[in-house]
Design a protein that fits this description.
The chain is mainly α and 360 residues long. Helix content is 71%, strand content 0%. The radius of gyration is 21 Å and the shape is globular.
Length: 360
C-alpha cells in the first residue's frame, strides 16, 4: 500500500482550528451531551420501569436511535471520536443488554442516576480486587505515554523522508497511544464517582504473543467485555444446536469480529463522513477467521500431547507484524484517503495553541 503524505498544519491552521474548538465546536459538544444526559435520565426513570424484554427494548429504541445520530453534530476528531464510541457503540450495546436485565447497567435495586449514567457512558469496568490492578494503570505510566505520543506527532514532521513501513509503525503507535490516553483520561471521573479501582482498558498489548492474547486479554478490554454477552454468547448458543459446540464457538468468534468491524466502520464514518468502503470491516473479519484458525491449531496440538511450542520471543513479533501489516492494508487507508490523520495531528497543534492562548 502506498502511504500518501501531505503537509502538516502550520501555526495559522492551528490557530483557526483552535478558534473552532473554542467556539462552535465546544457549544455543539455541550448540546450533544445535554441531550444524551436527558435520554439517560429517561432510560433510568421511565424505561427501567417497563417489563424487561422486547417491551423495554421498544421503549429504549428512541434512545438508541438518537445516540447513533448525536456524534454527527461534531466535527473535531478528538471530540467526535470519544462521543461516538461512548454513545453509539458502548452505550447502545449496554442499553441492549439492559433491556433484558443483563450487562453492567442492571442491578437490583438500580444504582443512583449518577452511577447509572457513568456506567452507561464511560468505558469502565469496576475492579473489586485492588490487588489485581495491573501496572498499566499506574499514574506514572500515563504521563510517559503522553510524552511518547508527543514524540510520535513531532516525528510526523519528517515522514515525507521516511520509508512507508516506518510511517506505518508511526500510525500504529499513534493509534495505540492516542486511544489508550483518551480512554484513561475519560475513566478518571468514574474513579471519583465510584470511589473504587477501575480496570484499565489496555494490558500492554505490545507484549501479545498471539491474536487471541491480543484481542481477548490486552487490547481495549471494554469492547470484548461488551461484545461477549451481546454477540458471542447468543451466537454460540443458537448455532450450537445446528453445528455443535465446537463449530458454534468458531462461528461465534467470527460473528463477534464481524460486528466489531461493522461498528468500527460506523466510527470511521463519523470521522470521515465518506461512504464506507468496508475495508475496516474486512480487517476485523480477517482477524476473526485467523483467530479461529489459531484456536483450532492450538486445540489440535494440545489434543495430540505435542510439547512443541513457539517461543514468545518469536510469536510476539510475529503477532505484532501481522497486526501492523493488516492494519496498513485495510485499516489505515480510509483514514489516510480522507485526511483524518492530518486533521488529527492538526488538532494536537490546535489544542496546544488553544491552551497557550487561554491559560498562558
Amino acid at each position: 500500500m502506498a502511504v500518501h503524505h501531505s503537509t502538516l498544519p502550520n501555526s495559522a491552521t492551528a490557530t483557526a482550528a483552535g478558534n473552532q474548538m473554542g467556539g462552535g465546536e465546544l457549544y455543539r459538544l455541550a448540546k450533544v451531551w445535554t441531550i444524551a444526559i436527558a435520554l439517560i435520565t429517561y432510560s433510568y426513570y421511565i424505561a427501567s420501569k417497563i417489563p424487561k424484554g422486547f417491551p423495554r427494548l421498544f421503549a429504549l429504541f428512541p434512545v438508541i436511535f438518537i445516540f447513533l445520530l448525536l456524534p454527527l453534530n461534531l466535527h473535531y476528531f478528538h471530540l467526535c471520536g470519544p462521543t461516538a464510541f461512548f454513545l453509539a457503540w458502548l452505550g447502545n450495546f449496554k442499553l441492549l443488554l439492559f433491556a433484558f436485565d443483563l450487562g453492567p447497567l442492571f442491578s437490583s435495586p438500580l444504582p443512583s442516576l449518577l452511577h447509572f449514567a457513568a456506567m452507561l457512558c464511560l468505558p469502565i469496568k469496576i475492579n473489586n480486587h485492588k490487588s489485581e490492578i495491573r501496572r498499566i494503570g499506574d499514574p506514572i505510566v500515563l504521563p510517559l505515554k503522553i510524552l511518547l505520543l508527543a514524540v510520535v506527532i513531532r516525528i510526523y514532521d519528517y515522514r515525507n523522508r521516511m520509508d512507508p513501513a516506518i510511517v506505518s509503525v508511526l500510525y500504529c503507535l499513534h493509534l495505540y497511544f492516542g486511544v489508550e490516553i483518551v480512554l484513561a483520561i475519560c475513566s478518571f471521573p468514574a474513579k471519583v464517582i465510584f470511589e473504587t479501582p477501575i480496570e484499565p482498558q489496555f494490558n500492554e498489548p505490545y507484549l501479545s504473543t498471539s491474536l487471541q492474547d491480543f484481542w481477548s486479554r490486552r487490547w481495549n478490554l471494554m469492547v470484548p467485555s461488551i461484545l461477549r454477552p451481546t454477540v458471542y454468547d447468543p451466537t454460540r448458543f443458537i448455532t450450537s444446536r445446528v453445528f455443535g459446540p465446537r463449530w458454534a464457538k468458531l462461528l461465534a468468534m467470527v460473528a463477534t469480529f464481524a460486528v466489531s468491524g461493522f461498528m468500527h466502520e460506523l466510527i470511521f464514518y463519523y470521522f470521515t463522513r465518506a461512504a464506507p468502503t468496508w475495508e475496516v470491516t474486512w480487517f476485523f473479519v480477517l482477524h476473526g477467521f485467523c483467530m479461529a484458525a489459531e484456536v483450532v491449531v492450538k486445540a489440535a496440538v494440545a489434543g495430540r500431547n505435542v510439547r512443541w511450542k513457539i517461543h514468545r520471543m518469536v510469536s510476539g513479533p510475529m503477532t505484532l507484524v501481522f497486526l501492523m501489516m493488516t492494519a496498513q492494508w485495510l485499516m489505515f487507508p480510509p483514514l489516510i484517503r480522507n485526511g483524518v490523520v492530518e486533521r488529527t495531528v492538526g488538532e494536537y497543534y490546535a489544542m496546544a495553541h488553544f491552551v497557550k492562548e487561554k491559560f498562558m
